[in-house]
Amino acid sequence: MKITDIEAIAVVWPPPEKHYWTALRPIGRVSELVVRVYTDEGLVGIGEAHGAGMPFPNVYRQNPDGTLRAEGASRVIVDLLKPLLMGEDPLNNERLWAKMFNLCHEIGWAGAGRGRSEILTAIAGVDIALWDIKGKAASLPVYKLLGGQRDTVPCYVTGGYYQDGKTLGDLVQECETYADLGYKAIKLKIGHVGVAEDVERVTAVRQALGPSIDLMLDVNEGYDVPTAIRAARLLEPLNIRWLEEPVHWYDRVEGLGQVARSTSIPIASGENASHRWDARDLINRGGIRVMQFDCTRNCGITEALKVAALCAMQNVRLAPHHDPQIHGHLVAGLPVGEILETFPAADRDPIWAELFSVRPEIKNGEMTLLDRPGWGIELDENTLRTRGVWA
Ligand SMILES: [Mg+2]
Question: Who is most buried in 73, 141, 271, 381, counting CB within 10 A?
Fold first, then answer.
């Protein structure tokens, strides 16, 4: 089998009407970079990459007249990766991954659409499409190729965002809605207000939902180390399943390790890890117990398998960030898989609501994987036409 063409489409939604805030950043436009790899045998692999960087993800830019153009990782795929992979056998994912990753030796982190971070995101999209082809060629879902540990995976909701005018009562009501949908684990954003106010927010949710619902807290890198340690100690009595990215971006390994040693709450991180070596540092020196490596942001499934092997060796659980339609296969396929992140609010996450004509269902807090080859998903062609920007 040979690769005959590669297509990159930045799918971009308008910003949500009500602004959502995490600790330090507003949620801007939501986007997803869709990749299609075509072959001479008629199999088409679907890949997805999730652009990093707010408010403009590294997959598109806005023109002065308000229209959008594909940039960053989208252009890297078409301009750099496509010429590298044309005519190659798509089943040789390890060899093709090394070919793509080696581009990073020539290129630094910054650069107009040619920086290393754009390349890692571009690799993610292409590698994920290659695994779709592998599954389709073998007539097996990817999670069965990876190990087939189970057919259903537990899911949690990410919610509790800060919004203008949102009261404590609104927050409690939001979380009760998730519990009513059958979710048994809910993650709340903290760090945008003072520690005392956040403790009050989390206490209100804990009291309303009772002890049987798991609560996780995501600081999105909002604290310095002393504040993170102080907050963790105050939150410990509330039975928190994990505390996520508590420390600012510039101290995300050593500082995180200090926090991990200071609290009984398990620490989670990894959505901003670029590759297996970042993941290794978070485990060995950051003291994390939950790894959230996002293979749609960086480097794809081929790299995520290395990260998963590290986790298995170090008794760290894998709970990947975002994109449940892809990461569900990792959590279902591998024994180290813990739980899957989902976003049921369609205005916060239109990807799940609008990008697919076929995708798995989430019911009672569990995703049942589709018994279809590859990722099992089909793209909604209408959404691609109306929201897509081709590179
Ligand atoms: Mg997070």
Answer: 73
CA of 272 to the centre of ligand 1 (A): 9
What is the enclosing helix (H) or strand (E) of 155?
Answer: strand 152-159
Q: What is the mean pLDDT of residues 324-338?
A: 98
Residue type (1 letter), 246: P
Contacts of 86 (CB under 8 A, 6+ apart): 3, 4, 5, 6
**What is the pLDDT, as a whole number, of residue 29?**
83
Domains of the chain by start residue, with CATH: 3-139+380-390 (3.30.390.10), 144-379 (3.20.20.120)
Residue pair 331/318 in contact (Cβ under 8 Å)? The answer is yes
pTM beyond 0.70, yes or no: yes
Q: Is the peptide bond before 14 cis (omega within 30 degrees of 0)?
A: no
Mean pLDDT throughout 345-349? 83
Residue 282, pLDDT score:
98
Query: 186 alpha carbon to ligand 1 midpoint, in Å?
Result: 13
Q: Shortest CA distance to 118 belongs to which of 164, 84, 73? A: 73
* Amino acid letter, residue 280: R
Q: Which residues surround ligand 1, an ion (CB under 5 A)?
A: 218
Cα–Cα distance measured from residue 386 to residue 195, given in angstroms and rounded to the nearest whole number: 43
Cβ-proximal residues to 300 (8 Å cutoff; 6+ apart), any chain: 47, 97, 123, 124, 125, 126, 127, 128, 130, 131
CB 135 within 8 A of CB 322: no
